Amino acid sequence: MNLLIVEDNLKMRRMIKSIVAGVADWIDECEDADEALALYSKNHPDWVLMDIHLKETNGIEATRKITAIFKEAKIIIVTNYNDTHFRESAREAGAVDYILKENLLDILPIIQQ
Questions:
Q1: Which residues have C-beta within 8 Å of that of residue 11, sequence separation ≥ 6?
Q2: Which pLDDT tens digit goes with each residue over 45-82?
């Protein structure tokens, strides 16, 4: 399985990577929406783990851009925002799930389906 982690905080990106490393064949990482779209276009990962708070374009808008072009994209929002509005916006943008960073281990059963 191939993954793309989109997270602007290096420490958090490393933590997410350490959690998924055991189930992934390949992991790519970036810190902003433009790079996420470029990497998705190039590598077509099986899953994208997307933060909401990114530089310039937020993760929900990045999700919208990716899923508009790549209908098959499977994106999980990984965030600290436990907010109904953000959850609904993420689903409307095409995210398949919404995980709080305090529950990072919840990513594993989703990506292993």
A1: none
A2: 999 999 999 988 999 999 999 999 999 999 999 999 99
Full set of structural domains in the chain with CATH: 2-111 (3.40.50.2300)
Q: Look up the pTM and report it.
A: 0.96
**11 is written with which tokens?**
């420490």
| pLDDT of 98 | 98
H or E, element range at 46:
none
The answer to whether 24 touches 56, Cβ cutoff 8 Å, is no
How many CB atoms are located within 10 Å of the residue 44 CB?
12
Backbone φ/ψ region at 44: left (φ over 0), alpha (ψ -120 to 50), beta: left
What angle is formed at CA 20 by the lines to CA 15 and CA 21, rounded to 5 degrees?
A: 95
